[in-house]
Amino acid sequence: MELMDGLPADPGAIRALAFTGLAHFTTVLVDNGGVRGLDRHLARLVTDARALFDAELDPGLVRRRIREAIADEPARVVVRVTLFDPALTLERPGADAHPRILVSPRPAGSGAPRPLRVRSARFGRQHPEIKHTGLFGALYARRLAQRAGFDDAVFVDDGGAFSEGPTWNLGFAGADGGLVWPDGDALDGVTRELIAGVVPGTVRRVSALDGIAAAFATGSGVGIRPIASIDDVELDTAHPLLARIREAYAAIPPQAL
Fold first, then answer.
1. Is residue 130 located within the same domain as residue 33?
2. Distance CA 208, CA 242 (A)
3. Against a cut of 0.90, is the pTM above it?
4. What is the tens place of the pLDDT at every residue in 163-195?
5. What is the DSSP string of 17-66?
6. In this structure, are 102 and 184 located in the same domain?
7. DSSP string spanning 154-209?
8. Which family, according to UniProt (predicted)?
9. Are 124 and 68 found together in one domain?
10. What are phi and psi of 144, to 5 degrees?
């Protein structure tokens, strides 16, 4: 059940969120009461609350709010935790903030998702160091890509360097089979951080797909998803690195809520 501060969400507060969009969030996959990288998700919420609202956040309270919201949900569920202050207005976003905790569960997908076919789009995220809710540009690029027959967009900067997808991080398999992370401006997702901790890789500029054998998307809700093609370049969705990353990620023990 969607809850705000442990109670059914107030429509007036949700309306304020829609009007201003001044908020930050994280998304976790809860599986039988455990979350991979839970400590990292909580640390990001704490850091972003300070950056956006100049407010301190109690991680223990966030955990309790998640447990309350998923009490009547299936054992496996995707949960988004959003922090915002409905008292902040368009005219006075600089007022002292007291962010509320909105917890929104949704069904988790089952089975392995099919590989993505993506179209490159020139885009740069505003303040990529904060996982904020300002997703218009990213989702508009996704919409345009889908209207053109692709599954999603992937972003490049003005120099043509790859960075990320609209709601996921991007990784590559290089010509030598090694893991490569693009160094473009992107939100460093928790799943990417966890993979980087168990599978050695390099970070470098990737502005062309020459020498790239495979690519994948990462995110807490989907894990590791192969990319079948970028623009008109076909990629190997059965590359051995993808299986290696999946196995290493699956071996990371979840942390109890």
1. no
2. 20
3. yes
4. 999 999 999 999 899 999 999 888 889 999 999
5. HHHH--EEEEEEEEETTEETTHHHHHHHHHHHHHHHHS----HHHHHHHH
6. no
7. EEE-TT--B-B-SSSEEEEEETTS-EEEE-SS----HHHHHHHHHS-EEEE---S-
8. Belongs to the class-IV pyridoxal-phosphate-dependent aminotransferase family.
9. no
10. -60, -40
